[in-house]
Amino acid sequence: MRGLYSYRTKSSEIEFLLQTETSILPIEVKNNNLRAKSLDSFVSNYEVERAVKLSNHGYFKNGVVENFPLYLVGLVPV
Description:
- By secondary structure, the protein is mainly beta.
- 13% of the residues lie in helices and 41% in strands.
């Protein structure tokens, strides 16, 4: 079963949580700022295997977080 959700606390928000059959993929969308405090917090608190950040910047990977440029959103592997 797949599902699409969001996550919000008093101090943080993850725009999308994609539930697949075997895992949950947090997806954060940033405009110009590359710092994603909410995503970093979620990754450390819930020990996810992979996370995605969408931004105006090119592709790079930092630990379990992969940054994809916004124009490639349809090609992000899930």
